[in-house]
Backbone:
């Protein structure tokens, strides 16, 4: 293979230097050069050597952070395109079709019955989570593949450990072109999008942009087909640039933005039990409430990667800014209904660096090590309009007063890890190591976390694994706001409990084991079981009018579950099905107690209860078939989702989260025709989808339960169509 050298006047390198960017890298043992030489032919205007080098560097990047005994469920680009909705589906709609993933409201998912605790990585680099809300930061259309990694994670994965959502972005290194399209239909949906990818000399690039507008931005709080006051406008953009410096190194920069505007949906005919009086007015039509939330997230990463024969490393500085603003009804509807109205602005600026490296000591040992640092500045500005009350809690004036809480915090995360992949025999691999993490923010804690995974492949197509991980999960700093509860004494926002403990880091012992078997060519089944013992179990809830969650801890907790999965991929057929059973429980709330009622705290102090996001049974499945015809290929697709129901109030009014919502089953259908030509038809795709085929009315939340704010129903049946032109 010809060695590739970068000219000293590389445009990207000059741009990086002038911007003062450091660089990221992705490491790991390099694939054999003979294997890399099997790369596809270069795109028009590109060099075959450049393509080979780019593929080899990608392989090196992926190998430095292998799952090594953890579960890894992959959605490749073909799977992402061949699903109802195709590339226009959002990330939540993709992830709920992985094993053990539960759907929740506001676009949230729970992996193995954990609340949040998901880590997002782009091209192997951590992108700090955004402030929770309705919008989604990452667009699946930018991904070449999406992996959900679960189980006992190896030592390179820290902080958010219920699962790692790893996106390998498109790069433009393997083909030039792009696409432009529009998708839309029911609920006023319109979604134009475009991508552009390619290469020029040593430079590879990929850009993507999309816009979404519909009248169902947040789940409908009623069972009606159309929501009231629920329009959203969302913008997403992503860019990737990579400059190959030599056959063993490259510089990459990528980043994106997500901006969302959301109306908060209303419920017609609501009447408060005891309305408050605002400037002589004590009535308000609930259908006319005008609450809104705006969310923005910007992120950027710079990467320097070196991939040698034995030593590999990556160096990756990153930055992420996130902000959420909530504005109550300007006419005072909130304060008439609730006695208070909050205008809030939460913001977070995170800057850090990730370093990963590997060294192949021998044929039997590959050592991996790395470090992580993040500095985060968060600010919470909440302006609350409230009424004064007397000793009996009765309103004393109809003129509200304003109480402002302006708080900020600078915190840090530090982490290092070291591990060894030890090949005991051709069929047995033992990966063991540890990481040490420190958090210095609202809590000041640290932990040494050993990890170990054993993988045995006794025969072709058969894999057993067993593992243990000690995990350390700091509370999300961007969601922790110092609340001066006593400032609201004597007002309509006073809390029954005026003190609360500080939110703490969760500590966990995690055990996992399973087997995967290829029954026949392309037909794979898998079974996995896990148990988690937790201290300071982290959970989150909605405790105000702003639809941003706040964290709290149970002193003790546990979770367990079993997952079964199967898939068949052969010829034109691609089929899969997943089934999961499990639960999570916690006892004794020890932080942020002012969010809860005294009777709830008293019961939970001595009893394990289900966490509100725990669901006993979850199932998903689907598939596609590719049919060649005279026009090109016809691709019918289908999938389904079953949920046993999240937790709700006890019908007997005794046990918090002692009830359960009804189970539900939804199915989606789609069909796409891909044209091969001639002329302008070449590269054209026309699709039609029906979501919630049987028009099921089902509750995701009913507004009850510990930390649950409002009811949400799943989307009713919708008809959608799209057209995309590739070039």
Residues:
């Amino acid at each position: 293979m010809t060695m590739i050298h970068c000219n000293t006047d590389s445009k990207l390198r000059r741009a990086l230097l002038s911007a003062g960017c450091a660089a990221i890298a992705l490491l790991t043992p390099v694939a054999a050069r003979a294997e890399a030489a099997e790369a596809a032919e270069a795109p028009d205007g590109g060099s075959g050597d450049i393509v080979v080098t780019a593929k080899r560097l990608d392989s090196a990047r992926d190998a430095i952070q292998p799952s090594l005994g953890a579960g890894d469920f992959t959605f490749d680009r073909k799977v992402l395109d061949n699903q109802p909705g195709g590339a226009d589906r959002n990330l939540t709609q993709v992830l709920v079709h992985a094993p053990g993933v539960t759907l929740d409201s506001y676009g949230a998912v729970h992996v193995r019955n954990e609340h949040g605790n998901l880590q997002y990585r782009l091209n192997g680099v951590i992108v700090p989570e955004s402030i929770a809300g309705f919008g989604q930061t990452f667009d699946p259309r930018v991904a070449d593949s999406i992996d959900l990694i679960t189980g006992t994670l190896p030592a390179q994965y820290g902080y958010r450990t219920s699962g790692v959502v790893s996106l390998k972005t498109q790069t433009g290194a393997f083909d030039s072109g792009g696409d432009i399209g529009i998708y839309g239909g029911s609920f006023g949906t319109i979604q134009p999008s475009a991508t552009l990818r390619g290469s020029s000399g040593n430079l590879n690039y990929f850009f993507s942009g999309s816009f979404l507008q519909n009248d169902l931005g947040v789940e409908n709080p009623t069972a009606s087909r159309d929501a009231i006051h629920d329009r959203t406008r969302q913008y997403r953009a992503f860019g990737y640039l990579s400059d190959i410096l030599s056959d063993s190194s490259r510089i990459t920069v990528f980043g994106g933005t997500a901006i969302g505007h959301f109306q908060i949906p209303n419920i017609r005919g609501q009447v408060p039990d005891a309305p408050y009086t605002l400037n002589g007015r004590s009535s308000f039509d609930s259908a006319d409430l005008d609450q809104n939330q705006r969310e923005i997230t910007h992120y950027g990463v710079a990467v320097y990667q070196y991939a040698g024969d034995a030593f590999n490393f990556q160096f990756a500085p990153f930055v992420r800014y996130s902000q959420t603003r909530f504005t109550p009804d300007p006419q005072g509807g909130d304060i008439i209904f609730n006695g208070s109205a909050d205008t809030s602005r939460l913001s977070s600026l995170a800057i850090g660096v990730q370093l990963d490296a590997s060294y192949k000591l021998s044929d039997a040992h590959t050592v991996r090590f790395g470090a992580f640092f993040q500095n985060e500045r968060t600010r919470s500005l909440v302006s609350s309009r409230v009424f004064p009350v007397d000793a009996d809690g009765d309103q004393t004036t109809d003129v509200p007063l304003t109480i402002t809480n302006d708080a900020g915090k600078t915190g840090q995360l530090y982490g290092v890890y070291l591990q060894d992949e030890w090949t005991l025999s051709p069929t047995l691999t033992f990966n063991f190591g540890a990481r040490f993490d420190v958090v210095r923010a609202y809590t000041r804690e640290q932990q040494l976390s050993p990890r170990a995974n054993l993988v045995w492949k006794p025969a072709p197509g058969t894999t057993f694994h067993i593992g243990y991980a000690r995990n350390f999960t700091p509370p999300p700093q961007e969601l922790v706001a110092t609340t001066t509860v006593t400032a609201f004494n004597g007002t309509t926002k006073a809390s029954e409990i005026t003190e609360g403990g500080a939110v703490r880091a969760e500590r966990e012992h995690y055990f996992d084991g399973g087997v995967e078997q290829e029954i026949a060519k392309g037909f794979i089944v898998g079974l996995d079981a896990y148990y988690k013992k937790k201290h300071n179990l982290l959970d989150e809830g909605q405790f105000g009018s702003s639809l941003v969650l706040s964290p709290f801890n149970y002193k003790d907790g546990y979770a367990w579950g079993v997952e079964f999965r199967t898939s068949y991929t052969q010829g034109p057929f691609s089929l899969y099905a997943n089934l999961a059973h499990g639960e999570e429980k916690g006892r004794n709330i020890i932080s942020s107690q002012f969010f809860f009622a005294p009777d709830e705290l008293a019961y939970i102090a001595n009893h394990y209860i289900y966490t509100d996001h725990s669901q006993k049974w979850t199932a998903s499945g689907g598939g596609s078939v590719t049919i060649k015809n005279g026009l090109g290929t016809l691709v019918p697709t289908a999938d389904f989702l079953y949920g046993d129901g999240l937790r709700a109030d006890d019908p007997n009014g005794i046990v918090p989260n002692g009830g359960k919502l009804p189970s539900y089953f939804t199915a989606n259908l789609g069909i796409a025709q891909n044209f091969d030509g001639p002329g302008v038809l070449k590269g054209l795709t026309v699709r039609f989808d029906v979501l919630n085929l049987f028009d099921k009315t089902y509750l995701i939340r009913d507004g009850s339960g510990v930390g649950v704010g409002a009811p949400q129903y799943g989307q009713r049946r919708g008809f959608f169509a799209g057209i995309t032109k590739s070039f």
Summary: The longest strand covers residues 401-425. The longest helix spans residues 48-63. Residues 1-46 have pLDDT under 50 and may be disordered. The chain has one domain: 11-168+298-327+336-384+402-726.
